[in-house]
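The protein record quoted in full:
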Amino acid sequence: MSLDPQLLAILACPVDKGALFYVADEDFLYNPRLMRRYDVRADIPVMLPDEATIVDDAEHERLMAKIAAEGLLPTFEA
């Protein structure tokens, strides 16, 4: 199951308030500016800064390539 499009349209990073990318097949939202990953558990985004995972450079590059290859759009346009 994926997140509701209406919810995605308003989701923002709790730290920098910017848009996120929803990587549905891996169940998380990603902030490329801060290299933070927010997990989605049981279709609920866990948007607590303390629960976020900071990814390393290699994982960031993998995620950005995946986002580009799959044409993923940000949760909203700034």
DSSP finds two helices and five strands in the chain. Residues 25 and 55 are 18 Å apart (CA to CA).
